[in-house]
Amino acid sequence: MFSARDRNAFSKKSNIPQVEKYSNLKYSHRLNFYDRPPIDDITIEDFETCALDRLRVLAEIESSFVRNRSWEELKSVALTQSEKYLPVHASTAIAVDRDAERKKDHVGHFVLRLAFCRSEELRRRFVKSEMALFRIRWDTDDRVEREEFLNSRDFDWIPVSESEIKEHAEELTAAAGGLKDFKIENEKFYKVKWTRVPDLVERRRVFLKGGMAYVPAREQSSLVFQEFQSNLEKALELTAKALPRLDEDTRIVPILDNLSQGFLAGVSSEWSTASSSESTGKITAEMIDDMARKHFPMCMRHLHECLRRDRHLKHHGRLQYGLFLKVLGLSIEEAITFWRRSFSQIQDDKFNKEYRYNIRHSYGLEGKRANYAAKSCVQILTGETPGPGDSHGCPYRHFSQENLSSALLATYSSQGLTQADLPEILHAVKSQHYHVACTRVFEITHARDGVYKGEGVGGGESVTHPNQYAARSRELEKARLETMKAESDGDIVMS
Amino acid sequence: MLAFYRRLYPFKSVFHWLNHGHTPTRLFTHRELAFTLKGDVYLRYNSFNTAEEMKKQVCTLNPTRFEIGPVYSARPRDKKTVRPAAFKPTLRELVFDIDMTDYDSIRTCCSDAAICSRCWTFIAIAVRVLDKALRSQFGYKHLLWVYSGRRGIHLWISDKEVMELTDDQRKAIVGWLTVIAGGKEMNKKVNVRLGSKPLPPSVQMALEPLAEAFTELILEDQDCFASKEGWETLLRLIPDKCESVTASLRRTWGKDPDRSSLEKWDDLKREVKGMEKGTFQRALMMATIEDIILQYTYPRLDAEVSKHRNHLLKAPFCIHPKTGRVCVPVDPNDIDRFDPEKVPTVTQLLGELDRAGEDVKPDEHHSDWEKTSLKPYIEMLDRHAAGLMEEVRQNIRNGTGMSVLRFQLSIDVTNALFELQI
Question: Would I find Transferase among this entry's keywords (chain B) (predicted)?
Answer without folding.
Answer: yes
